[in-house]
Specification:
The chain is α+β, with helices and mostly antiparallel strands. Helix content is about 20%, strand content about 25%. The chain binds zinc ion (ZN). The site of zinc ion (ZN) has 8 residues, from helix 2.
């Protein structure tokens, strides 16, 4: 299983192709700026390097990124022209899971129940969740199953595969790298908490990231797609 950040890695793959038009640093017909859609400068070096993806963008976009950065209001990558115009298609490969910034399975949170002796409602489809903290050297993880129901072995396998692939990402090397990675995640009312979402063949996945040192730093919640719409 491969986990990719959407749409950052698609933009970088597109730029790899576009860059080929610049033989010896100049392009007779420059490609479009992936961020705004305007043509890039014919001379490669005149374009700007994006702060959010390893791609070159037009000078005006470079300026806009700098201004937005200063104001802490970056343009989300999904708002880039290449993404909005539909030029970048997610590869429908089974082995690739994309991490996305917006939840695509809100129904999961509509069907909830209260486990015995607990105050907080939980989604009916929740199979398990992991809770991890980074102690400055490594990650420590514990697993939780609030419903007490046994998870079918094929789903356990899917959970394991996703979890392993996720924590192998460079983003999870340290708390510092995770913090930087959160630039691509959904923000919340708490400036130290972020969300990302993903899915596998049978699971919806919510990734909650907390950048505070000496706290729990990552919760990964796994939901059974087949039970996502069910009432308790
Ligand atoms: Zn541009």
């Amino acid at each position: 299983m491969k986990i990719k950040l959407y749409p950052k890695e698609l933009l970088e793959a597109a730029w790899k192709q576009d860059k080929k038009l610049y033989a010896h640093g100049d392009a007779a017909a420059p490609p479009k700026c992936l961020r705004c859609g305007a043509p890039l400068a014919a001379h490669l070096m005149v374009n700007a390097l994006s702060r959010y993806a390893d791609v070159q963008i037009c000078e005006a976009c470079g300026m806009d990124e700098a201004l937005r950065d200063a104001a802490h209001t970056p343009l989300p990558l999904v708002e880039w022209d290449a993404v909005k115009s539909g030029h970048l298609k997610k590869k429908a490969e089974k082995s690739i899971c994309y991490l996305v910034q917006n939840c695509t399975f809100s129904e999961v949170f509509k069907h909830t129940y209260k486990p015995p002796m607990q105050l907080i409602e939980r989604p009916v489809s929740e199979l398990a969740y992991s809770r991890s903290d980074y102690d400055g050297y490594r990650w420590w993880t514990t697993w939780h199953n609030e419903s007490g129901k046994k998870t079918p072995p094929e789903l356990v396998k899917e959970i394991d595969e996703f979890q392993n692939a996720l924590f192998k990402l460079p983003a999870f090397k340290t708390l510092e790298t995770m913090k930087r990675f959160c630039r691509y995640a959904e923000t919340t009312s708490d400036p130290t908490e972020f969300n990302l979402y993903s899915e596998t063949a049978h699971l919806y996945i919510r990734i909650r990231l907390i950048t505070r040192f000496r706290d729990y730093n990552a919760y990964i919640y796994y939901y059974d797609k087949a039970a996502a719409g069910e009432e308790q």
